[in-house]
Write a structure and sequence with these properties.
This protein has 3 helices and 7 strands.
Length: 144
Amino acid sequence: MRVLLLLSFVLSLLVSCKSQQKGDALTENEGIEEITEDELLTGKVLGNRKKKIQYVAVKLVVDENTCMKAYTDEDGLYDFLVNPSKLNENSYFEFVYKGYVKKQVPYSEIAKNGTVRLSTKGDVVTTTDYRLFYEAVRSCKDEL
């Protein structure tokens, strides 16, 4: 009787381990983007004389329907939690701050070097335009 009980216990243990392994395996319907992990993309925004700029509105345009937002902190730093498989060659960043020229940078450039320098030479953003952009990016996602 003990042997039969021990045998049934071992058999049930093996069956439960096998079913758990099948649940962990990828099915044919799962794509590569589902197993790609999110990455933290960080960067810095500098102005004149390499001054760190806080409150810069940063918008990551993934495609025509999707965007993400961030704002720089007191050290001029920003970050995004992104899934690289959802970005494409047309994805880009927009940096907007009053008194500086609006800057667009391709995602591929930011991925290599996260530091961006804003310029005061050219058509600078007014305080009103900055506030409008700052509020507009609030509709973008925090994570992708």
